[in-house]
Amino acid sequence: MKRPAGMQAFVVIWSGQVISLLGSAMTWFAFTLWVWQKTEQASALATVSFLVFLPSILFMPIAGAMVDRWERKQTLMLSDMGSAFATLVALILYQFDALALWHIYLLSLLVGFFTAFQYPAYIAATTTLLPKKEYARAQGMIGLAQSSSKIFAPMLAAALLPSIGMAGIMTIDLLTFLAAFGALLWIKIPPHANPQPAHPTQAGFTREVAYGFRYIFAHPTLRSLTFLFVAANFFLAIGATLLAPTILSYTANDESALATILSVGAVGGIVGGGLLSIWGGPKRRVHGILIGGVSACLVGISLFGLARGVLMWAVASFFFSFFEPFVQGSDAAVRQSIIRKDALGRVFSAQQLLTQIPYLIGVGVSGWLAEFGMTKIVGVEGSLHLSATLVMAGILGAIVFLVGYAFPAIRHADEEKFQGAL
User: Fold this and answer.
1) Which of 14, 182, 209, 272 is the most buried (most CB within 10 A)?
2) pLDDT-derived band of residue 155, with 50, 70 and 90 as boundaries?
3) Which residues span the domain enclosing 308?
């Protein structure tokens, strides 16, 4: 049988990833419930999220540079195998009643490490497989795959857990890895058009990784936008991390309520992204960044903290995700108009690292801030300490985005065009 090529080959890879993403998201939903039932501590859930994010963020610039040297197909296969290995270890430990919280922590680190290589390899493979006219279509399909897993995985996991348990969910996850692996085996990804040396000198590799950072700090708008997100992402991370423990705390571990609210939030992301694709966003993209950020913080995070019921939590979750594409899409459009095309990969990787570190810190401290800091500062206990932390994070995040208007480099970001070389 002739192997598919071009868009057909991409659809094969994409289909395998859709199935694999669904299985992985179901497993992590089950892990969320398991960790909460064992500890009933928001700090424990926050630590799991922190450890997943940690290696994927820290290794991102290095992974991006290495993916340009390795074969994309082998990189994707090794990444899938690593994540599957982590799930298999968890399944074996669970079956022998030996699974402990620290095992989840270590496995989260392992999965995060392989994720750091998977996404850039996936994007690079897409670029190699497809002509330029198909790039936008492929990006839309990738976004649809990610959003679909967030919608359906919580509902499927919540429906299946009572009958097959966490072991059954992890078994399904392992089977979905086989689908992704089989798809990669079937198709052929062309080699690099401009191969890089497999073993670059240390000085050359260091300069290549550092170039993106130098580029950002040499341009006022890029530098100012980076500082804006360094501050705002800390509070956005607190909001995103405390959603699940807040729901479980108020609903006595109702997994159906958690699944419903998370799925509604994913729908909000799809609706927001679809509207942005059709409309194109505000004419001045800086408004999409700043007003979108204020709205996500107040209508999403703070409202979630004030809500006391599944309906209002679902509304807040919807709008928190709804405004995210406007913030990220507008920011990416501004940066793409400033950054030279041959530097986009390195600069975006550097920007991701700089802005995701505070997000990572926010994820890590959110549970401790709620359980210890907020209890002492405000004097609230029980579930109220989670709600109070969300309300405060939303207000402070909104203030950060509003302050962005005070900086000319951000306020006039749409007017800047890059004219020279670094």
Assistant:
1) 272
2) confident
3) 211-414
